[in-house]
Every structure is written in C-alpha cells, then in structure tokens.
Recover the amino acids of this structure.
C-alpha cells in the first residue's frame, strides 16, 4: 500500500454507510462544488486524510496548522438520518502511476469497510445549452440494477473517456469488489458551473433518493470561494479528470 490513511481525532474506523461520493476539481468543478456544498450544509466531520508521495509537494496552512497535501474523507448526516461519506480534495497525484496506486488503495479500503457503492461526480465539456446527465458504469451487474430502477446508462458518452483518479476509480471498482457509478453533468466548461452542479444534485435525488439539503444561493457562495483558490499552476491540468467529447484530453 502506497497511500497513508491518517485517522482524524479519535476515529479509527468508518461509520456504517452505503454510499461514498467522490469528486475532484475538474471541468466546471461541478462534482467538487456539490460535495463542498454538502459538507458545508450538513456540518460534516472529517474522518480521514489520505496522503500519497506523488501528490504535489505543497503543504498548506489549515486552521493555523501546516498540513501536508491530502485527500479527505468526511462523514455527514442527511435530514433523513442517512449517513453519507464524501471523498474529495484539491489535488491528485501528478503522475499516472501514483493515480493508479492511490485509486487501488482507496478501492481496497472501501471494500474492507463494506462500502456498497462508490458514486463519482464529474463534468463533461459540451456546447452552450447542453444540459444532459450521463450515467456510466463499469460492470454489467450494476448496469442491470440501474436499468431495473429506470435509470438509463450511457453506452457512448463520454466519447473521449475519463482520465485521472475519477476514471481509474470508476473503471477499477468492480474488479476490486466495489460497485461504482459515475454521474456526469454536461457543462459549458466555466471554471465553476453552479447551474450544472445543481443539475447534478437533482439527478442524485432522482436516481438514488438522497435528501441533499443545499440551495443554489449557498452553492454560488462556495463557487466564489473555489474561484478564489483556483489555480492554473503546476499540476492543475492533471487534476481535471474529464473527458472531452473528441479525442483530446484537455481543453
């Protein structure tokens, strides 16, 4: 194992849960914005920091403490008392091998902690006015379950595939004993697309019955905060996980 799992506070195991939501900065930052909004609205509690040697070597000040680069796993409680875990961060490993190692370590960890489904959130760069939601899976059993629930699974989009941690987690999950679903909102590709993030939220409510108590107003406030911290410095491109409609990796 190359990923270091650092428990926060007195935590030493994951709470009982069904779902983990995952997103990193990407096209439109739609998944990242949704997770940040949920963590804020539900007063989430950080359970774990995930560290890897291929994360960008940039320690940051957090609440007056110098903190190494990491992803973070949070616990939140929805209004119906359902426990939901979110996994997010500002960065991912800078090289493909590190992304693969971290994805594999995360999936093995989730399997050992009885995660029933990993839901990955992302944005797909599209033309203005495109507002589709694409649901993508990596195994036939999950596809059949979703179809039985009336959820249409995409077989053609994203045409260019999915790169980075999002693509690896989604595609490797079944072979590591975890069911995965990637939910992708089309976006015009602005740095922080609050409208696409709202469509992503509504799709999770419709598909999985989540109670997601956030408003567009608060989402817009968090979008401004993301923009203030948004960087196009070294490593920024590698953190954009998607997915072009053509054969190019990045725009």
């Amino acid at each position: 194992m190359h990923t270091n799992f650092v428990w926060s506070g007195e935590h030493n195991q994951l709470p009982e849960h069904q779902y983990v939501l995952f997103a990193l900065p990407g096209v439109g930052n739609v998944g990242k914005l949704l997770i940040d909004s949920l963590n804020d609205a539900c007063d989430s509690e950080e359970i774990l920091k995930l560290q890897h040697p291929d994360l960008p070597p940039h320690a940051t000040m957090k609440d007056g403490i110098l903190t190494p680069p990491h992803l973070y796993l949070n616990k939140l409680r929805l209004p119906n008392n359902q426990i939901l875990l979110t996994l997010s961060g500002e960065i991912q490993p800078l090289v493909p091998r590190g992304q693969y190692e971290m994805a594999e370590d995360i999936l093995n960890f989730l399997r050992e902690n009885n995660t029933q489904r990993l839901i990955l959130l992302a944005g797909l760069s599209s033309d203005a006015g495109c507002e589709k939601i694409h649901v993508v899976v990596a195994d036939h059993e999950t596809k059949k379950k979703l179809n039985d629930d009336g959820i249409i699974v995409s077989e053609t989009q994203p045409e260019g595939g999915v790169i980075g941690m999002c693509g690896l987690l989604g595609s490797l999950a079944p072979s590591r004993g975890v069911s995965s679903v990637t939910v992708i909102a089309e976006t015009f590709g602005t740095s922080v697309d609050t409208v696409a993030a709202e469509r992503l939220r509504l799709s999770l409510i419709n598909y999985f019955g989540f109670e997601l108590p956030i408003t567009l107003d608060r989402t817009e406030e968090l979008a401004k905060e993301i923009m203030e911290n948004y960087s196009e410095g070294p490593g920024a491109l590698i953190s954009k996980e998607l997915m072009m409609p053509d054969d190019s990796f990045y725009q």
